[in-house]
Amino acid sequence: MIIEKSIESFGRYWQFVWRVFSRPERLRVYAKRFVDEVTKLGIDSIPLVIVISIFIGAVITIQMQLNITSPLIPAYSVGLATRDIVLLEFSNSILCLILAGKVGSNIASEIGTMRVTEQIDALEIMGVNSACYLVLPKIAAFIFFMPVLVILSIATAMVGGWFVAAFTDIIPVSRYVYGLQALFQEWYVWYGLIKSLFFAYIISSVAAYWGYYVKGGALEVGKASTNAVVSSSILILLFDVILTKLLLQ
Predict the structure, then answer these.
(1) pTM
(2) What is the pLDDT of residues 23-39, one digit of tens each?
(3) Cα 124 off chain centre by
(4) What gap in Å lies between CA 78 and CA 165, rounded to an integer?
(5) 3-class secondary-structure state, position 218
(6) Reported confidence tier of residue 114, pLDDT bands at 50, 70, 90
(7) CB 107 within 8 A of CB 229
């Protein structure tokens, strides 16, 4: 039974994606909706990204300094390890897991509410491709703005580590900054950006799928939001493994 439902959901998802990426009918309308979605899904996520990244950067720095005690390990390793952890995992994978809760639930609940209040049915009656009209601007906007959130997360996480060095005696600022600059690999930045684009698509499309096919009332909208977050998180972790193997082998 579970396998049958999974196969059915998989097939229905790709039918949904086919409708979403059909040619938009009025590009001017879609452009306005794109700008609105950039504001709602991207810009409104900036405060959350900044707060989380600062604290994570600070915690990573403290943990690295407290656990690197061997005299054989270079003193700048704390800054280097903090930088690489942020670039390789936190600024893309962990950040997207967090955004799946905020952005994914937002998309699923919004579209699900439109479904149960029959607004989507009204669009269909008017001859509008509701999947494309409602979902395509969300996917495009979130993918477009995700690199900005990743770069912002990287920068603020580094600043969080700098705060630890500047306002405590755990590690000197000069040693931390030197570690950030030591043995830098530019590909790590591109690696994180590439992964984040895949994750942005997963979050927005999966959440929209669960919201679009809601049946029932307000209770089902809540269940759809939960399903969207859980499904997105599992897929992000799965593709994190796959993309890491492909991009870092």
Answers:
(1) 0.89
(2) 766 777 788 888 888 99
(3) 30
(4) 11
(5) helix
(6) confident
(7) no
| Residue 208 contacts residue 103 (beta carbons within 8 Å) | no
> Which pair of tokens denotes residue 105?
């639930």
Cα–Cα distances in angstroms (integers) from residue 121 to residues 33, 37, 111, 115, 228, in the given order = 19, 22, 12, 7, 22
Residue type, 153: S
Lowest mean pLDDT among 9-18, 102-111, 229-238: 9-18
DSSP annotation of 71 reads T
Single-letter code of the amino acid located at 192: G
Inter-residue long-range contacts of 180-183, CB under 8 Å, 24+ positions, other chains counted = 180/79, 180/80, 180/82, 180/83, 181/79, 182/76, 182/79, 182/80, 183/80
Cα Rg of the chain (Å, integer): 21
What SS3 state is found at 72? coil
CB 62 within 8 A of CB 170: yes
78-82, 87-91, 200-204: which is most confident:
200-204
Q: Within 13 Å of residue 187, how many CA atoms lie on the same side as its CB?
A: 5
- Rounded to an integer, what is the distance from CA 57 to the centroid of its chain? 18
Taking Cα atoms as reference points, which of 159, 230, 239 lies closest to residue 199?
Answer: 239
